[in-house]
Amino acid sequence: MAYFWRSLLLQLVLLSFLGVAAVPQAAPPRLSWVFRHIAFADGFVDVYGGENVQKLRNGMLVNISLTRSSGSGFKSRADYYYGFFSAGIKLPVNYSAGVVVAFYLSNAEVFSRNHDEIDFEFLGHIEGDEWVLQTNLYGNGSVGTGREERFHFWFDPAATFHEYSIIWNHRHIVFLVDDVPVREVNHSAAMAGAFPGKPMSLYATIWDGSAWATRGGTRPVDYAYAPFVASFAALEMEGCAWNRTAPGPGEPPCPGGVPVQRLGLRPVDGRDFVELSPPQRAAMERARGRFMFYSYCRDGARYSVMPPECGEGKRRLSSRHNK
Ligand SMILES: *[C@@H]1O[C@H](CO)[C@@H](O)[C@H](O)[C@H]1NC(C)=O
Ligand SMILES: *[C@@H]1O[C@H](CO)[C@@H](O)[C@H](O)[C@H]1NC(C)=O
Ligand SMILES: *[C@@H]1O[C@H](CO)[C@@H](O)[C@H](O)[C@H]1NC(C)=O
Ligand SMILES: *[C@@H]1O[C@H](CO)[C@@H](O)[C@H](O)[C@H]1NC(C)=O
Ligand SMILES: *[C@@H]1O[C@H](CO)[C@@H](O)[C@H](O)[C@H]1NC(C)=O
């Protein structure tokens, strides 16, 4: 009997190493599910494929589909100049190679030559393979320089809803998955003009990315598995809303006159949004160490001269290693 309990204890210890250590834990503060969840009618409009944008549960759940005839998508009515943007997303089940689901900020419809963009992209899935999450950003038309990073998940993103959030303000951009920061891009001198700096709308789309999304484009969309359905819930947008069609005099009003936010949390300039806590940084390093498998900053074949912000990371890395 004593042996039984000892071995059970041993198994528990082992499990906690294998299991818990492998799953990044969200470190406080928790940022998603703090703000009001926005119903479709209160914050969004269809962008395309309207018949494939289904508003369910009074608009608190939106299913967007890719079918043989069309992809689909919706976007925020307002533009935002910094803020916090979050959604619970459930990805298409079963075979979805070539299908891209995107949750992103962009102003490409307004600034065709010098647009800004901050992206979460989910790149189609083949059973047995791991799902791929890609993050990327462009600032002021920096489309010549892709700043992609790619991650695997520590869960099955098609099994249920998980939270994907973007913090964007004058200090940095942070991508979070279930409240675990997975990437931070500082508004440093090196990023300069490539840091997104004009009001953007929030988008959710699903489309055919056959040419590149899965295994370098060798696995195009197979419409025998259509419709491909991605679900969005718990939509949150808090920050500096700016009305492009009826702008105030001069520049957008934010940042500077940042409105007082609900619950005293200020997504544009509040401490929890302009800096990561030490536990958040530690969680981010663990998540990146384990789940990031591509970073443009390590792609020497692509960039013989690395974008300048990559050097910042390296300098920090080497100074840490020299300690
Ligand atoms: C922006 O202002 C215009 C004109 O006042 C108004 O019709 C529109 O609904 C506003 N948009 C938003 C998102 O508030
Ligand atoms: C997914 O695949 C399983 C097993 O092949 C099948 O039973 C199920 O109906 C499929 N689900 C959908 C939504 O197509
Ligand atoms: C961003 O800036 C903060 C504060 O200076 C620093 O601690 C952090 O390491 C930087 N992050 C990146 C990814 O460079
Ligand atoms: C963004 O691009 C425009 C047009 O190319 C340029 O005039 C402007 O100075 C740029 N802004 C920044 C912040 O680099
Ligand atoms: C919408 O998505 C949810 C969650 O993924 C799913 O359970 C539901 O069947 C979908 N509804 C429709 C009408 O497609």
Automatic annotation (TrEMBL):
GO CC annotations on file: apoplast
Compartments (UniProt record): Secreted, Cell wall; Secreted, Extracellular space, Apoplast
PTM comment text: Contains at least one intrachain disulfide bond essential for its enzymatic activity.
Presence of keyword Hydrolase: yes
Coarse class of the protein's main subcellular location: secreted
UniProtKB keywords: Apoplast, Cell wall, Cell wall biogenesis/degradation, Disulfide bond, Glycosidase, Hydrolase, Secreted, Signal, Transferase
One GO BP: cell wall biogenesis
EC number in record: 2.4.1.207
PROSITE patterns: GH16_2
Function: Catalyzes xyloglucan endohydrolysis (XEH) and/or endotransglycosylation (XET). Cleaves and religates xyloglucan polymers, an essential constituent of the primary cell wall, and thereby participates in cell wall construction of growing tissues.
Protein name: Xyloglucan endotransglucosylase/hydrolase
Organism name: Spirodela intermedia (Intermediate duckweed)
